[in-house]
Amino acid sequence: MAFIRKIVLATLILGAVIGLLIFGLIHFLSTPMNSATPQYIEETPAVEQFIGEIAESARKLGADHDLYASVMIAQAILESNSGQSGLATSPNYNLFGIKGQHQNNSVLLETLEDDGEGNMTTIQAEFRKYASYEESLKDYVNLLRNGVSWNKHYYTSVFKSNAASYKDATQFLTGSYATDSKYNEKLNSLIAQYDLAQYDNPIQSKKTIQVEDGDSLPLIAEANKVSVTSIMQWNQLNSNFVEAGQTLTIIY
Known about the structure:
Blueprint: H1 2-30, H2 47-65, H3 69-80, E1 106-114, E2 120-128, H4 133-146, H5 166-173, H6 183-193, E3 206-210, H7 217-224, H8 228-234, E4 247-251
Antiparallel strand pairs: 1-2, 3-4
Helix pairs in contact: 2-3, 2-4, 2-8, 3-6, 5-6
């Protein structure tokens, strides 16, 4: 009898061990692999959000200095990768790739230079450093209005009074501001895609609306006869998602 009791006891212990192993395996398989260490992924700001940060400053500077704000904004998008380049982000805020110093402030960065024979070489260059986007925009305007050291009238062809449209201005910048033979095409494409020509004109009126249940940006844009990209710019939205109760600015 003692022998039988030992066998029964051993069987019970073995069964308990197997049960614990099975329970542990089921728990392991049912647990998401990434639940222990959640990962945070930072979103890249939308182009519209960047435009919204500089558009009204560009509108005012353009109106005050006889320049196309649309061209200014398009160049900022292109030259700074929508404010995401190392030169454009804090603490440099250089939106236009302008070299040299600004109020004795500069930063050394690697850049590609053409040696004159079509060969690109990486060099260290000194670029102007600003305290804000606003300073960068103002310095860009100063460059276009006052030209370069060897020719004070170098950029006069981009003035609104000398260029019948923004396309005339971008055509002149091709080969003068940038050597890229398709520079004007790239700028014109950005101006059309993001409806930037609106910033060449003063604001006529402005209103605030509240998002209702069932609303979406396309529906709101259609109801107000404006574009989705414009609404995103005016409100510095990072996506086209809106929710009930949210307030939005509409500009005409």
